[in-house]
Amino acid sequence: MLRLVLEIERRSASYPNTLRHRMCSRAMRPLAIVLLLSACGAGSYQSVRAEKPATRAELAEYPVSVADPALRDAMARAGFTVVERAPYKGELQLSSVGEVATLRSDGFFVDQVRGDPAAIAEALAASSRVAEFVRNSGTVEQRQMPPGR
User: Fold this and answer.
1) I want to staple 121 with a disulfide (CB 3.0 to 4.6 A). Which of 61, 77, 78, 103 is the partner?
2) Are residue 4 and residue 39 in the same domain, yes or no?
3) Digit-coded pLDDT (tens) for 84-96
4) What is the mean pLDDT of the segment spanning 121-133?
5) Has residue 149 been placed in a domain?
6) What is the residue range of 39's domain?
7) What is 54-121 written as a DSSP string?
8) Is residue 49 situated within a structural domain?
9) How many domains does the chain contain in total?
10) Is residue 102 part of a domain?
């Protein structure tokens, strides 16, 4: 009797598990493909113009460290306070590679724009991310950091 019960359990246990495994793997293939395709980035980051851009007074509140002299002049004309030193805690740093400029604060991404120095300065001055930064005293990540870091 025990032998019969063990044989039935062996047969019934292996068949549904095999069937379930095949059904799951068939159902998971399209899901995995959709997940993979949706995870791939489509295009590059685009800076968005603010509905209410930061004023020149708001832009002047946060010094921006800029190494490139041409970009430094353009940023000053756009209303930013430009400095030639490393940024202090909470200040902005603009780095450029070719025609792509990235604005960061304490290593946190603020905005990124493309173009010649004048276009970069104008785009950053009108950017929604820059306006949010100056009006909210930094990025969301910076505001969530404990003091002293």
Assistant:
1) 78
2) yes
3) 999 998 899 999 9
4) 95
5) no
6) 1-43
7) PPHHHHHTSEEEE--HHHHHHHHHTT-EEESSPPPTT-EEEEEETTEEEEEETTEEEEEEESSHHHHH
8) no
9) 2
10) yes
Buried b (16+ CB within 10 A) or exposed e, 46-64: ebeebeebbeeebbbebbb
What per-residue confidence (pLDDT) applies to 47?
Answer: 87
Q: Do residues 34 and 60 share a domain?
A: no
Candidates 31, 92, 41; CA nearest to 67 is 92
Quick: pLDDT tens for 46-99: 889 999 999 999 999 999 999 999 999 999 999 999 999 999 988 999 999 989
Nearest to 143 by CA among 88, 95, 106, 103: 106
- Tell me, yes or no, whether 78 and 35 share the same domain: no
Distance CA 134, CA 58 (A): 6
pLDDT greater at residue 24 or residue 63: 63
Q: Are 67 and 88 found together in one domain?
A: yes
